[in-house]
Amino acid sequence: AVRTRDHDRATTALSTLLPGSPRMEQWPLVLLLQSHLLRNTKGAEVALTTLQQALIQHPQLKQVSPHLRVTLQARLATLAVYAGHFSAAEAILGQAEIDAPAIAAAWGRLRLFQRDFAEAHRLFQEVRDQVPTDDIDADMVLVGALGAYGAGSKKEGAQLLQWAGQLLVESSAEGKLRALPYNVLRDAATY
Q: Which one of 18, 97, 98, 123 is at 20 to 30 Å from 78 when CA atoms are compared?
């Protein structure tokens, strides 16, 4: 429902899940859903604050699987980037495992917004070399595309942008394009 921007359906599902989430084994997924919905409806600042408060209220964060913990950290950092809190995003990411693709994508997105295109591109290349091609998600390819393009590798950036476009259509996640610096995205898309 969040992916298709059906906010009413997502809100209904969330209102059903939230009251019981502290007792659910997969409560981090409910918090991720809530953060996506809030960002789409009320903005990054509200989503960031709500996710931070929810994590404080769940002292069992250390008991969460490493994958979900890294996913929560990446989401928290990404919301901080969207809200313009770059130093907060760096602090969050500094506590995470850099080798996780979700963390690398969050670092890359932060570097894009800081206009450090070469570093964003390097992070993409690092993940691309470690992760099977079928497992690379559109987020990371978008980071690589805009990093390459912004660093001057315009042809590579355009090629990666085409690959990212295919991944976005296949995963019905075109909304991810809103999570990137618009001027660089526009320039790369028209190259």
A: 18
Assign 3-class secondary structure to 58-85.
Answer: CHHHHHCCHHHHHHHHHHHHHHHHHCCC
Burial letters 45-63, b for 16+ CB under 10 A, else e: bebbebbbebeeebeeeee
pTM of the model: 0.77
Report the first-to-last Cα separation within the chain, whole angstroms.
33
Angle at the Cα of 156 (from 152 to 162), degrees rounded to 5? Answer: 125
How far CA 129 is from CA of 79, 126, 133, 154, 160, in Å, comes to 27, 5, 9, 21, 15
Q: What is the C-alpha to C-alpha distance for residues 121 and 119, in angstroms, rounded to an integer?
A: 5
pLDDT tens sequence across 103-128: 988 999 999 999 999 999 999 998 88
Report the share of the chain in percent with pLDDT over 90: 41
Alpha-carbon distance of 143 to 156, in angstroms, equals: 12
* Each residue's pLDDT tens digit, 75-97: 999 999 999 999 999 999 998 86
- What are the structure tokens assigned to 32, written together? 């991720």
